[in-house]
Q: What sequence folds into this?
């Protein structure tokens, strides 16, 4: 059974009583990763911190370039990785990074026909509308404000989904005088 947009809107408005109950329950909606839901590993043990420290001048948008123009920020395909990494590296390279298992996994994708099958782990509920373009390009909010610990990570998250709570959305919307109408986000 599928629920139409207008039916869903009705459900949301009907949920005002529920929302008040949630407000009374207080901090129950804090940002959270579902610690119990262990994720299958990402195809490559990508290291954010290493890249941000060692790849001179690299920015979030070099790899997540859709964030300024689309609802999704996007996870980079292998063409971006091989813009820096030689797909046919010197087999005698004995540097520590070249010996990491993750490096071999990346190199296997150089010969593979397909792209790297990354999985998304940060997500809101299906009925919540969120646009990166609106927040990154229009409101000029730094990625770190919402994805605080991602740049510090040395390996991909192992538990998820990672959810930004309604309280977090609303506290900034109040602060910045952005819309607090239910239907701005629930559509
Ligand atoms: C702007 C350049 C740049 C891009 C783009 C880039 N890398 Fe790297 N990568 C580096 C640098 C610099 C290092 C540090 C080692 C070195 O000097 O080669 C590194 C190291 C690595 C390593 C080995 C170290 C470790 O901790 O495992 C892996 C694996 C890796 N990158 C995967 C990727 C993947 C996957 C992508 C695409 C999503 C990517 N890289 C995109 C510059 C880049
Ligand atoms: C060299 C490419 C590269 C750079 C630079 C980079 N990322 Fe990523 N990012 C990735 C890859 C690959 C993944 C998927 C694997 C993982 O989770 O580590 C990812 C995953 C993410 C995710 C999780 C996506 C999901 O599914 O939930 C967030 C959030 C994120 N990056 C934010 C950032 C921010 C913020 C910055 C800048 C501080 C940044 N990234 C810089 C390549 C990059
Ligand atoms: C105002 C908060 C906010 C800001 C600022 C923000 N994000 Fe996100 N990000 C989110 C939310 C919420 C989701 C989950 C979206 C969904 O489920 O549709 C998400 C999901 C993602 C994802 C995984 C899904 C996707 O969109 O591809 C990546 C990667 C990501 N963000 C990267 C970034 C980067 C890089 C920046 C800065 C250029 C950034 N985000 C800025 C809130 C934010
Ligand atoms: C750090 C501050 C901040 C956070 C956190 C934030 N937003 Fe926003 N949001 C803004 C600002 C500022 C605007 C107004 C941008 C503009 O001028 O168009 C906005 C606009 C929006 C709009 C467009 C509203 C309209 O006028 O139709 C939606 C939808 C939205 N945000 C959803 C979300 C959701 C969902 C979350 C949480 C997952 C979230 N936002 C978190 C600051 C934030
Ligand atoms: C700025 C964006 C935004 C606005 C405005 C907003 N919400 Fe939400 N709402 C969210 C996000 C994001 C979630 C999912 C977060 C989560 O799962 O914790 C959510 C979740 C919910 C839930 C489900 C809670 C649960 O635990 O499953 C209800 C009910 C809800 N919202 C009702 C409302 C009502 C009623 C209004 C208007 C008074 C409203 N929301 C306004 C962003 C918003």
A:
């Amino acid at each position: 059974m599928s629920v139409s947009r207008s039916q869903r809107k009705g459900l949301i408005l009907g949920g005002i009583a529920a929302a008040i109950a949630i407000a009374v329950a207080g901090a129950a909606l804090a940002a959270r990763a579902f610690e119990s839901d262990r994720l299958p590993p990402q195809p490559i043990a990508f290291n954010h911190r290493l890249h941000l420290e060692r790849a001179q001048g690299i920015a979030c948008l070099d790899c997540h370039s859709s964030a300024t123009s689309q609802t999704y920020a996007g996870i980079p395909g292998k063409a971006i990785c091989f813009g820096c990494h030689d797909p046919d590296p010197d087999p005698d390279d004995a540097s520590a990074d070249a010996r990491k298992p993750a490096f071999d996994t990346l190199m296997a994708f150089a010969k593979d026909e397909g792209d790297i099958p990354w999985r998304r782990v940060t997500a809101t509920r299906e009925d919540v509308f969120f646009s990166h373009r609106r927040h990154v390009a229009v409101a000029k909010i730094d990625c770190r404000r919402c994805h605080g610990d991602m740049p510090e990570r040395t390996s991909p998250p192992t538990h998820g989904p990672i959810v930004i709570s309604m309280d977090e959305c609303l506290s900034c919307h109040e602060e910045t005088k952005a819309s607090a109408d239910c239907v701005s986000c629930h559509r």
In short: The longest strand covers residues 32-33. Residues 1-31 have pLDDT under 50 and may be disordered.
